[in-house]
UniProtKB/TrEMBL annotation:
It comes from Callipepla squamata (Scaled quail). GO terms for cellular component: mitochondrial membrane. It is found in: Membrane. Its main location: membrane. Keywords: Heme biosynthesis, Membrane, Transmembrane, Transmembrane helix. Required for normal heme biosynthesis. Coiled coil: none annotated. It is a multi-pass membrane protein. Belongs to the TMEM14 family. The chain crosses the membrane at residues 6-23, 30-49. Signal peptide: none annotated. Pfam families: Tmemb_14 (PF03647). This is Transmembrane protein 14C.
Amino acid sequence: MAVDWIGFGYAALVTSGGLIGYAKAGSVPSLAAGLLFGSLAGLGAYQLSQNPSNVWISLSKSLSILFTKENIYPKTSGC
């Protein structure tokens, strides 16, 4: 059974990004998003490590991050 080191590293990176955003700017949304999506990434990496054919949690996590980012940071350039 192979461990998904890349997935766990990504989860740690996302979580630490939320923590750093909170520590530097006091951003509670950054902290909440970092903890939420970092936890989902960790869960997806764990599931993928247990059963390599189970990609649904990782896929849904990636799509939710994409759609959330588009809703939080809409294009404001007017183009």
